[in-house]
Amino acid sequence: MKRKGFITALLAISAVPLFGFTPFERISKKKEKGFKITAGEGRIHGHLKLKGVNSNVLDVKVSGKDTKGHLAIFEQTSLSQGRGTPLHIHTSQDEIFYILEGEYHFQVGDEKYHMSVGDSIFLPRKVPHAWTQKSVTGKMTVILQPAGKLEDFFVTMAGLDHEPTPGEIERIFEENEMKVIGPPLKLE
User: Fold this and answer.
1) Which CATH number is 47-184's, of 2.30.110.10, 3.40.1280.10, 2.60.120.10, 3.40.50.1950?
2) Which residues are CB-contacts of 155 (< 8 A; sequence separation ≥ 6)?
3) Cα-based torsion angle of the residue sequence 172, 175, 180, 181 in order, rounded to the nearest 10 degrees
4) Which helix (H) or strand (E) holds 18?
5) Cα Rg of the chain (Å, integer)
6) What is the pLDDT of residues 96-150, one digit of tens each?
């Protein structure tokens, strides 16, 4: 074999094992299965009855644990007319809401929006936002990308044995990659 052909062949053979360590290879060999979550059910935690910010029920549909932290999807049944989140920011996640039932008011940055069935809203990371439930009841799909710690926030809020103080709420927000920067949005 000529020297040039030998070196080319040696380089080609030595590069083959490297392909087994590429992210593409790891993804293509994934053997995980899909799953179904039945209507009215929550994955992993069951129904999470929240305390503090509101007393809504949250169902995890797709956990961040299912997606290696890339995505989380929740369904929130709203039972707290006139209540909502304080003005806050997510440091590392974008958030999308899709209204399934009821009416809400949202604030994103300086803009305010009235939301009703079929409306969607995008809340970019690091932009202050809040929402308040306008109707007696409601339901929203909430999508977070990447998943972050919002699921942990919901589990913590549901696990409290008391209604938290505003100071406790701020602390729990911060422990879960969010920061409270203002009061809840008032209904107009």
Assistant:
1) 2.60.120.10
2) 45, 48
3) 150
4) helix 3-19
5) 22
6) 999 999 999 999 999 999 999 999 999 999 999 999 999 999 999 999 999 999 8
